[in-house]
Amino acid sequence: MSHLFRNLMENDNLLVGISELSQMYDISPRQLRYWEQKGFIASVTQEENVSRKYRLPTVVKVEMIKRFLDEGFTLAKAVEKADQKIKIAHHIRKVFSGALQNLEVIDNRFTIMSLGPVDEEKHILHIIHDDLTQKLHYELLPEKEAYDFDKLKNCPPIDSTNKENR
Q1: Burial letters for 55-70: b for 16+ Cβ neighbours within 10 Å, e otherwise?
Q2: pLDDT grade for 75, boundaries at 50, 70 and 90
Q3: Which of 27, 74, 76, 154 has the fewest CB atoms within 10 Å distance of its CB?
Q4: 136 three-class SS
Q5: Nearest residue to 53 via CA among 61, 43, 38, 40
Q6: pLDDT of residue 35
Q7: Do residues 44 and 16 lie in contact, with contact meaning Cβ atoms separated by under 8 Å?
Q8: Confidence (pLDDT) at 9
Q9: pLDDT tens figures, 127-160
Q10: Which whole-number Å values give the CA distances from 146 to 7, 96, 125, 126, 139, in the listed order?
Q11: Burial class (CB in 10 A: 0-12, 13-18, 19+), 82
C-alpha cells in the first residue's frame, strides 16, 4: 500500500494546456509565454505548432505567482516567494513520500496518516485529523498492532448548537 501512496505523491505527469491554465488563474496566455521566456516557468517540450502544456508543479507555481502578484508583489518578488514555497513543499513531499505508509479517510471526517517506522522498535505514528473540530491527535503503536479505525466510525457528530463543544 505504501508504494501506491508514494507513487501518487511523486507523480507530476498531469499535463494542463496553456488555455486551461490561463482560464484557471485568469492569466493571459501571452503573460504565461512571457513568464516562460523569462525562465520563471517551463512548459513540456513538444512538437512545433502544438499548444504548450504544463506539468502539475508548474501549475502550482503559476497559482502561487498569481496570488503573490494579487497581493501587490512585483513579478520578480512573486517568483522568488513562489520558489521559496516550492522548495519547502519539495522537502515536505520528500519526507512524507518516504515515510507515508497508509492514508485512510473515515466517514469523510477523519483523515489518518500512518508514518513509520519512526524508531528502533519500528513503531508506527498515526496522525489523525478531525475535519469537524480541526484538531489533530497522535498515536504511536507497535508495527504489528493495527490502528483501530472502528473507534472513529463510532464517533458521534459534533452538536454545533452545544456551546461546550465549540
Answers
A1: bebbbbbbebbbebbe
A2: very high
A3: 154
A4: strand
A5: 43
A6: 97
A7: no
A8: 52
A9: 999 999 999 999 999 988 888 877 877 777 655 4
A10: 23, 20, 11, 10, 11
A11: buried
Mean pLDDT of 13-23: 91
Mean of the per-residue pLDDT values of the chain: 85
- Give residue 22's identity as a one-letter amino acid code: S
- pLDDT confidence tier of residue 29, bands split at 50, 70 and 90: very high
Sole residue written with cell 471526517: 109
- CA proximity to 18, closest of 66, 52, 50: 52
For residue 126, list its beta bridge partners: 114, 139
H/E element holding 159?
none
